[in-house]
Amino acid sequence: MIEIMPLLDEKSKMPLYIQLYNYIREEIVSGRIKPDSRLPSIRNLSVYLKISRTPIADAYDLLLGEGYIRSRPRSGFYAVSPEDIPSLHAETAGESEEEEQKKSIASYDFHYDHVDLHHFPFKKWKKWSNICLTSENHHLLQNADLQGEYGLRKEIASYLHQLRGVCCSPDQIIIGAGTYHSLQLLFHLLKDDVAIVGIEEAVNIGVKGIFEQFPSFSYRSLTLESDGISMKDLYNSQAQAVYVTPSHQFPLGMTFSMKKRMELLQWAYKKNAYVIENDYDSEFRFNERPLPTLQSIDKHNRVIYAGTFSRIMSPSFRISYLILPRSLFHRFQKQINSYNQFASPLLQKTLQLFMESNDFARHIRKMRRLYQKKHDILVNAVNHFFQDQADILSQGSGLHILLKVKNNMSENELILAAKKEGINVYPSSIYFLEPSSASTAAVLLGFGALSEETIKCGIKKLAKAWKIT
Amino acid sequence: MIEIMPLLDEKSKMPLYIQLYNYIREEIVSGRIKPDSRLPSIRNLSVYLKISRTPIADAYDLLLGEGYIRSRPRSGFYAVSPEDIPSLHAETAGESEEEEQKKSIASYDFHYDHVDLHHFPFKKWKKWSNICLTSENHHLLQNADLQGEYGLRKEIASYLHQLRGVCCSPDQIIIGAGTYHSLQLLFHLLKDDVAIVGIEEAVNIGVKGIFEQFPSFSYRSLTLESDGISMKDLYNSQAQAVYVTPSHQFPLGMTFSMKKRMELLQWAYKKNAYVIENDYDSEFRFNERPLPTLQSIDKHNRVIYAGTFSRIMSPSFRISYLILPRSLFHRFQKQINSYNQFASPLLQKTLQLFMESNDFARHIRKMRRLYQKKHDILVNAVNHFFQDQADILSQGSGLHILLKVKNNMSENELILAAKKEGINVYPSSIYFLEPSSASTAAVLLGFGALSEETIKCGIKKLAKAWKIT
Predict the structure, then answer these.
(1) What structural domains does chain A harbor?
(2) Contact B122/A134, CB-based, under 8 Å?
(3) Do the interacting molecules here have an ipTM over 0.90?
(4) What predicted TM-score, i.e. pTM, was given to this entire model?
């Protein structure tokens, strides 16, 4: 029998079974555990390492699943020769990964982050892209404006003015490679005069990741009420900046009321604080007239506005933008050489040409109609199949809803039961900064990428999976 | 006379004159200072604000230069109406910016970062790009693998193996949106077990900017000798990681000798330290056989390899890569959700198709021949027009040379004299971590983007500008 002596750290954030899996995996790959040698039994290893059997069984499961070991009935587990481990060999691994992707596309995936790409304007985009890719335009392939292409910034300023009442000059706009990149830049700018940041109690994982990259800030969680953040929490926070998603809170989906918007701005004026307004899927507000952005009603340059093209165009372009109040913009100018422009100038220029033509305006109208229809179908299907067994906690804007199912299943049980039927729905509790504050078991259902038929059929299957019908 | 009551903070990192400039600028733009009202004199404002006259004069200068105020002889400074301030009006600003760009393209620009885009394979790239932009491939527009597209990583692994002897699996590769993005990611991974980083005494400004983003590291400057970094400096540094550009030091241009490469690896093994090898323009080594990369001769997984497609393809794609040793890769896997993939999946996929075809190999061969020719023309032109009046301090690889001119002009004088003749050459001293260590006045001459004729003509004009002939 071989010896297994991993250094397990019970205090590590990495679960024991992953530590054990990593250790055995490397021993096999490096050849230190010889091919075909028998691994200790779960029972023996448990006694030897003085840990329970569960993590060992989990580690072996993982190793089995990935082909590092094989099991022989009534004999035990044996190391596989590195040459025979599929995931170590590029070609096979690639294919299986692609296979897996195809499989997940085939299922009912209510991912809140997916957008409808069947209706992407391929032909028009190709036209503009090919214009950029001609030798006369070769300078577009050179590294370009650190702040982002001027022509694109000009289009963004005019688009936001028309659609969102945002008032700004192209000079105040900084292009980024997605919202996370924009926020990263912003936090670098703020870190000299902001120490405390107030944030909505539930927030996108990626945004949370950015916060963690800036340990010099301390964060205050702000309770979310049906009409926006708790002003009481904000008043007590001593924050010098606050991060909000007022047009469609992520993930809970509420819209900030006009009253709350005004209070928020008043607070910012009084405290000379910044309001970071992430308007990530503002293009899609159904049924009701959209409320004005904070940026458009701000009288004292306290609002920093962040937006993205990931929703209205495609996340694969990696293009977002930030609108800075003048004072912050001057700071940016001073530091511009330490900023890195990660958004592709080529794609920026293509987007600019697309926006300059009527194609963009037409595309927005088309996508809004399309998503409105999908949204209504989803809401109707939920009402039809769930009757009074579920509440839609937020609806009317954006590309996802939050669903509370009244069948006494926990969030995790809901997700697992759905998965068994080939349906992906997503947790909401993981977005809370403090785990205990997730008061209701509710799941996120995105509808952007699904066809109308799939939405109806998926909801019907969900009702069955959750034993509603 | 109007009143000016800015809140000036003498402890702020922002200079007083900038604070004052910002304040007055906003007062004028907002209309709180009425058009044509007279500003207080420098002398009166100095008494009133209890600060010296210099920052006030500087602030007024800046406001004058940008058109916010105008001066009337023997009367004073007057606010301009916001409608008449040119920089506030997008269209005008845009046009002048574009005009400026055009002008700079027309001159002789020996920029070390520019690549030849006249010979970019537009037709072939368009072909692959258009294949990605079809509705059957709509999933390519969805957000994709956080680590980078698997298929592209596979191509990179095989390309680096063939060209640079690099041995790695696609699993170890992480795609980034340019070298700075890749280094940002890497430093996040290293920050838990690295406190001291050794860096070459002269280093790319962007890389320096990344270092500054990680104040938890302390840095040790390592003297550069003709065959690489000073090992003595490294032994004394107590560094746990070292950053080097062994195949073509940026900016000084030397290549690390084989002896130094081996010593560097020995040091890393002994200290269990990391070597960060930035191989940014390794495709271009002329005349001599390239030396093996550190990654390819590393026996103990201490080398982290960074590369980019900015040189061989186009900086506008924003695609780079990082090859992690296994141990670091496992750390990356644990943290993958806090990593943000800024490189466009669409461009990644296009690049993958381009690499899978023979087009890429052909392109590399073509560009290498092309750059070799330009390099030789540059070197010959320098020898011809400067004779013994200049030394080329480094040559034979990469897209720039370092030129020492023996006419007793300082670096700055050389640059200014060239500029007068419409020629841009670039300083080398600004790259030094400690300004005093730039011992020789030498300028950088990049040749990537210039035609053969322009190179010859530019060098001739330089000789004249510097009074060599």
Answers:
(1) 16-101 (1.10.10.10), 124-358 (3.40.640.10), 361-465 (3.90.1150.10)
(2) yes
(3) no
(4) 0.77
